[in-house]
Amino acid sequence: MPKINISQPHKDAQAYRFDMKRMRVMIGRSSENDITIEHRSVSKGHCFIDRLKGGFVLRDNGSTNGIKLNGKREEVITLTNGMVVEIGDVPMAFTLTEEECDQLTAERFKARPEPVAAA
String of b and e for 39-51 (b: at least 16 CB within 10 Å)? Predict the structure, then answer.
């Protein structure tokens, strides 16, 4: 299963590692989320990660401070291995093992349509 690393902007905070075992993982400040981030810039139900065939996407859930890639606010971000995004002001690194990268590549390859021969 892919793993997500979350690091908070506090020097003493330890990185949080989460196994993606479901098709959708909720992230926010509320303890009802799968991943709880206790930071003032994070909304109660801030965003979620969806597991799609061949990959993952991060989707904003109408939060106040949004999700960002390279400092630019986005509604949806396609996650790639090693990518760092921001949930509010909290950086989140998305990492996969080599085996997981191979599995996602195989899923993407299977999802492509078969070529059609010209008549």
Answer: bebbbebbbbbeb
pLDDT tens for 50-95 read 988 778 899 999 999 999 999 999 999 998 888 889 999 988 888 7
Q: What is the rounded distance in angstroms from the CA atom of residue 113 to the CA atom of residue 101? A: 21
User: CA 47 to CA 68: how far, in whole Å?
Assistant: 11
The pTM (predicted TM-score) of the whole model is: 0.77
Q: Which two tokens stand for residue 109?
A: 């390859």
Q: Tell me 2's DSSP state.
A: -
Ramachandran category for residue 62: left, alpha or beta (phi over 0 → left; psi -120 to 50 → alpha): left
Q: What are phi and psi of 6, to 5 degrees?
A: -120, 125
